[in-house]
Amino acid sequence: MNNNDILRRVRYTFDLKDNVVRDVFSLADFNVTDEQIACWLKKDDDGAFVELNDKELAAFLNGYINFKRGKREGEQPRLEETLNNNVIFQKLRIALNLKAEDILEIMQLAEFRLSKHELSAFFRKPDNRHYRECKDQILRNFLQGLQRKYRPS
Length: 153
Fold this sequence. Notes:
Blueprint (H helix, E strand, L loop, with lengths): L2 H11 L4 H10 L6 H8 L12 H16 L15 H11 L4 H10 L6 H7 L13 H15 L3
Helix pairs in contact: 1-8, 2-4, 4-5, 6-8
InterPro entries: YehS-like (IPR009921)
């Protein structure tokens, strides 16, 4: 999955208007313009399409955590220069305050079966022997399940 797809899906699922998306970025102390947002949301084959880089997506996800849970006191987390599906999955889990059971339920809405042990492997540190890389299919199904839960129409 590319970063623009993730931004589009989260925006659609939670019905975030462009001004709210801009506010979400600002909650991570990252300023963006309405033009940038519009270009990120365009389809890949559109001439005005601009690719969202990892640092920009990290800013959105960190801002989304602050948007949903409130900005924590003190220094804000630094923005990751590179993201992988595990980090994206983790940030969405934190923002939505999801427990393992909640995620498994969401995955079932997307008709995707996953055990609690398989799920916990995605949230471990990469040097842990039980760590498992989160593939695009799993993140895609999680986002699809979120959409079915929060935007069933």
